[in-house]
Amino acid sequence: MIVTHTPNNTEFATDTNALLDASQDWMPPEAPLDMPQQVLEHDRVRAEWPRLLRLILPGKPV
Amino acid sequence: MSSSPRKALAADPRTRLLRFLALSFALLAALTASTLLADAAIQDGVDVWDVVRGLLIFVTTAWLAWGATLSFVGLAPRVLKRRPTPELQSPAPRLVVLVPICNEDPVTTFARIAAMDHSIRAEGLAADIAILSDTRNEEAALLERQTYLRLIAETQGEGRIFYRRRSDNRGRKAGNIEDFIRRSGGAYDFALILDADSLMEGRAVREMAARMQADPQLGLLQTLPKIIGARSFFGRAMQFAASFHSPIFTRGLERLQGNTGPFWGHNAMVRLKAFAESCALPELAGPPPFGGHILSHDYVEAALLARAGWRVQVDHSIGGSFEEGPENILSYAKRDRRWCQGNLQHSRLLLAPGLAAWSRFVFLQGIFAYLVSVLWAAFLITSVVATILAPVPNYFPEPHMLFPVFPDDRTKEITALIVGIMGLLILPKFAILYEASGTRRTARFGGSVRAGFSVIAEILLSSLIAPLMLMYQTKAVMQVLSGRDGGWPANQRGEGALTLAEGFRAGLWIMLTGGAALALVARVAPDLTLWLQPVCLPMLAAPFLIAWTSRPLTHRLFLVPEERRPAPVIRSYREIVGRWQADPHAETVTPEVTHVPA
């Protein structure tokens, strides 16, 4: 998310507003590239097993 | 979630042989040190403290020997002929220079960008530059925007130089770059990743792009940045060491790491396709310091690129790559605290699925870089304890003996051990000096005599401040192990001379610890007092050392080539920043005129 709010500092308020408006045009070109999140820990996968078991076993809250 | 279907590249036989020899040397040195210590210690029988000391000296010596091995491997003559640098082919790759910043001084940072932009364009290269701000302070952010306008006016950079700021700083620097790639990565082939204090010649950027273009399997190419702009005694000593010794150590690293090279987070070019498909970092489960964002993300990204089958290489010979370094011991220690937490966090990743064995070893090395200080401290403490608890010698072991039996004097073994350890620390530096004299590399450092004095002065300074570093690193490790998160402090750039009062604030605890240790040892084990002087005396002088080494050094000791003949991009940066700082309120082009089409 990109900053668009106005700062509290009134001394810079006028300039800031102009700069904030302009800063929307300073963005790099839009050309999305997918970044799939990597798996680094075994534990996270292992942690899913107890949750799955609790789903299957009756009487155990998930 | 993804783990790449490709497999990490296997090391070639030459690299495997070098790794075997290097590890064997380190283990042999460690074994020798342990044997010498055991020989001296078992005179009065074996107790638990002797075993602990033996193990500690084994690990710490192995670490020192490994460091020395890097230089020996780097000094070995080249066997294979160096391949010529390829020329950039048409169509030229789409390049972007990424400058992630967070609460930096925008005037110096953007002046560097202006200088690099001039240099890149002078090489006939087309490259966009994206300033990726994570600055939280609104006033600082406003100053960034104002300085950005000045940068655009200076470079005529409309449509080429971009600025964007995140409100959500998720993932810190790695997240900042990831955010850019997710939004804009498809527009480029290669990205040159920089730090706020990085400076690179256009020629270097061109060479790196050509290398990436010529080798489609090369995922990341790391340069060896040289430190520039140092003024203090400490800073200039570091600058000299980085310029004189580091190329040899890095060449050793190149040869040992092969295709599983390092990423130091900046002054490196990445193939965006490779980076995007393999380097989106997850948050680690649990709270910091071991969970949460991955702090030392660069090592992990290098390991992930290698895991996905991409080549990751470092090349010390690419010139024109620069950065700035800490100017005093305090700034160095603050940076070290951050790196310590990041490296110790890697203990969570040692068993990460699919990593190349060498990547795991690199994580282990990073962890040991900090743990070894704790181990040295533990060795000193156990040595004192072992001496206190040693049984009183029995001069008449047999009844009715006329003459006493004195225990064998093992001072020779202990002296040999100390000389050996000092040798592992010092020998590589003198070997590099010898090589540099032989190849006339010393000419660029003011000649062989001046370079020799600089090497000796750097060794003396390193020896003096080593106990201080040991204390700071031990404190950092203890803080991390006790669960204290160091957070994400702003970089301490441009911090200069420290007063004696600041030296006392930073080093009083070290002084008191050194004084207490010396007093205790003098009382309970007076024989050890002399042996502990090299550690305790610098600790007693810590506040003075911290203040004294931060003072400007104008002497031509520690002369480096960049001081005698600065690279064009350094000269250009100094001219621009001088102009901007001389006239901070100069008119910038108004935002309306500098609108950049998205």
Task: Name some characteristics of this structure.
heterodimer, A: 62 residues, mainly alpha, 0% strand, elongated, disordered N terminus, B: 598 residues, alpha/beta, Spore Coat Polysaccharide Biosynthesis Protein SpsA, Chain A, seven-stranded mixed β-sheet, three-stranded mixed β-sheet, 19 helices, 10 strands, globular, disordered C terminus
**Which class best fits the helix and strand makeup of chain A?**
mainly alpha
CATH homologous group name of the domain at 95-369 in chain B: Spore Coat Polysaccharide Biosynthesis Protein SpsA, Chain A
Can you write the helix and strand succession of chain B as a string?
Answer: HHEHEHEHEEHEEHHEHHEEHHHHHHHHH
Approximately what portion of the residues of chain B adopt beta-strand conformation? 5-15%
Q: What fraction of residues of chain A sit in β-strands? A: under 5%
Question: Mean pLDDT of chain A, rounded to whole units?
Answer: 62
How far apart, in Å, are the first and last alpha carbons of chain B? 31 Å
Describe the biggest sheet of chain B? 7 strands, mixed
Helix share bin of chain B: 55-70%
Uncertain ranges of chain A: 1-14
Query: What is the tally of helical segments of chain B?
Result: 19
Low-confidence stretches of chain B: 1-5, 589-598
Give the SSE string of chain A.
HH
How many β strands of chain A by DSSP? 0
Q: Report the oligomer.
A: heterodimer
Protein model, in words:
The complex is a heterodimer of chains A (62) and B (598). By secondary structure, chain A is mainly α. Chain A has 2 helices and no strands. The longest helix of chain A is centred in the last third of the chain and has 15 residues, at 42-56. Chain A starts with 12 loop residues before the first helix and ends in a 6-residue tail after the last helix. The radius of gyration of chain B is 26 Å and the shape is globular. With 598 residues, chain B is of the alpha/beta class. Helix content of chain B is 56%, strand content 8%. In chain B, the strands form 2 sheets. Chain B has a 7-stranded mixed sheet with strand order 3-2-1-4-8-6-9, with helices on both faces. Chain B has a domain at 95-369: Spore Coat Polysaccharide Biosynthesis Protein SpsA, Chain A, CATH 3.90.550. Chain B is built from 19 helices and 10 strands. Chain B starts with 12 loop residues before the first helix and ends in a 16-residue tail after the last helix. Classes of the chains: A mainly alpha (62), B alpha/beta (598). Chains A and B meet through helix 1 and helix 2 of A and helix 4, strand 3, helix 5 and helix 9 of B.
